[in-house]
Design a protein that fits this description.
The protein is built from five helices and no strands. It has helices at residues 12-40, 44-52, 69-95, 101-126, 132-159. The radius of gyration is 19 Å and the shape is elongated.
Length: 163
């Protein structure tokens, strides 16, 4: 079955469905990033404090405690399951685009790697490997860049006029 370039052949109703899905999905994704920024200030130390606490820091403006294991496991479980479905759907839509095969493969595979590194990394950091906060931030940033790039490519190809 030929999927390449089929996005442009969708009916107007199907294109509208995909467009509305992407707008709503992006709203949810970026709202999550706002939440992350509120809790970590998008800093390495903020990531560490969010999951490991800051009880030893007498100058902390907000007291945070180390998350219990059940909370870490639940958070990792929920995010990995839900975001893997998100990236599966986004990857499926990427298959329908006109894009170089290499770029398409990168955009399809990369978010799954970043997803495992980000949320697996939080668990590893919580377990005592503190330098993993750098892996968490890097992979989370890469996942966000890939998400944004993928959505923009799909939207651009949805709205582009065909000859």
């Amino acid at each position: 079955m030929q999927l390449e370039g089929q996005l442009k052949n969708l009916s107007k109703s199907a294109k509208l469905l995909v467009f509305c899905f992407l707008i709503t999905l992006s709203f949810g994704f970026y709202t999550g990033l706002i939440f992350v920024n509120e809790n970590t200030h998008s800093t390495f130390n903020g990531i560490e404090e969010q999951y490991l606490g800051n009880e030893a820091d007498e100058q902390a403006t907000e007291m945070k405690f180390k998350k219990p294991e059940k909370e870490i496991i639940t958070m990792v479980h929920n995010h990995v399951l839900s975001m893997s479905v998100i990236f599966f759907l986004l990857g499926g839509l990427l298959l329908l685009t006109n894009l170089s095969p290499l770029l398409k493969k990168i955009l399809i595979v990369e978010p799954f790697i970043s997803l495992l590194l980000t949320f697996g990394g939080i668990w590893i950091m919580w377990s005592g490997v503190y330098w993993f906060k750098y892996v968490v931030m890097f992979s989370g940033t890469l996942m966000t860049a890939t998400f944004t790039t993928s959505v923009l490519i799909i939207v651009f190809q949805l709205v582009r006029k065909t000859n």
